Amino acid sequence: MNDFAARLLDWFVLHGRKDLPWQRDSSPYRVWVSEIMLQQTQVQTVIPYYERFMQRFPAIDDLADAGIDEVLKNWSGLGYYARARNMHRAAQIIRDDHGGKFPTSIDAIELLPGIGRSTAGAILALAFGQRHAILDGNVKRVLSRHAAIDGWPGKSDVAATLWQLSDKYTPIARVSHYTQAIMDLGATVCTRARPRCNECPVRSDCVAHALDKVSDYPVKKAQKAKPLRETTMVMAVADNAVYLERRPPSGIWGGLWSFPELEPDHVEDWCRRIANGATVVPQKLQTVRHSFSHYDLDIHPVVVRLQQASTSVADSGDMTWYQLDQQAPGGIAAPVRKLIDSLRDFDNVANH
């Protein structure tokens, strides 16, 4: 065993995380769900979502057999909803093409939607003890600092160097512990901000630490100003119900339920149509800004109150009048959920 791995494993015995929910029964399915949820999301945020998700979908077949609305509803709030859609499709492939058994070869796993090289390696290492290198965000940070790797890790040549280091340090024995250890080191010690270098087991030969330049690594991507986009969402309210539409299956918030998005000069025509020709007065609410990784979105909400729910626009499975005192019809994005909650301030909705 190489010295880097040996020191990390000694540290893991004393300081590693060993009682996370997905570690109590490290089946490939449970590990897979956790790895997908942990992409772009902190452990403490993931834990309650993971526990609810596993309670509702305790096995691959449960996930595969569920409707996408049910899956997205149990994902609502975690964001990056393509993860849930991909996981649902992957579960169906495992059910139909692999007899419901999670594949045990990295090539087969990488063919599943939403699973790349690092996630596939992590699943096989943690669930089966197979030796595979990984390179998630935490590992990139540890290795970039330890070797003072110049260049943004998203560049192909930099990523190739990091993969070489990851493979070099991954031992043959105790692979599952090592894989968890290097992820834990990045998550709890070699953190993005305020790293605790005095607690690091590989500090003695960390180049960035020796140069007193830990904060310079990993090298950040050159930042461009985020573009600002705008949309108008129309919230039609009748009694204790609000009108929602299912978004297209791909793209931002794909498959989630949302308010209709319209061009500002189309709002009045839409309101007259949903009101069956009656005169209604749209009310503008305060603009809500929601930030995505690549752009900011200003949502301009408009409320239109109706005497009764219109049937002229709710004639398919992609449209619904959502009763606010009942369960949501499926997944709802966080800013849309906030807008729905804001409707409870209106006298004709709250406690109707």
Tell me what the structure shows:
- The protein has 352 residues and is an alpha+beta fold.
- The chain folds into two domains: 3-216, Endonuclease III, domain 1 (Orthogonal Bundle), CATH 1.10.340; 228-343, Nucleoside Triphosphate Pyrophosphohydrolase (Alpha-Beta Complex), CATH 3.90.79.10.
- The protein has 14 helices and eight strands.
- Helix 1 (3-15) crosses helix 11 (175-188) and helix 9 crosses helix 11.
Helix content: 40-55%
Number of domains: 2
Spatial separation of the terminal alpha carbons: 68 Å
Q: What global shape is seen?
A: elongated
Count of individual helical segments: 14
Strand element count: 8
Give the full name of the CATH homologous superfamily of the largest domain: Hypothetical protein, domain 2
Which residue ranges are poorly predicted, with pLDDT under 50 across at least 5 consecutive positions?
Answer: 347-352
CATH class of the largest domain: Mainly Alpha
Rg computed from alpha carbons, rounded to a whole number of angstroms: 24 Å
Q: Which structural class best describes the helix and strand composition?
A: alpha+beta
Q: Output the helix-strand order.
A: HHHHHHHHHHHHEEEEHEEEEH
Q: Strand content of the residues, in percent?
A: 5-15%
Would you tell me which CATH topology of the largest domain applies?
Endonuclease III, domain 1
Q: Characterize the main sheet.
A: 8 strands, mixed
The CATH architecture of the largest domain: Orthogonal Bundle
Q: What is the assembly state of the chains in this entry?
A: single chain
Round the mean pLDDT to the nearest integer and report it. Answer: 92
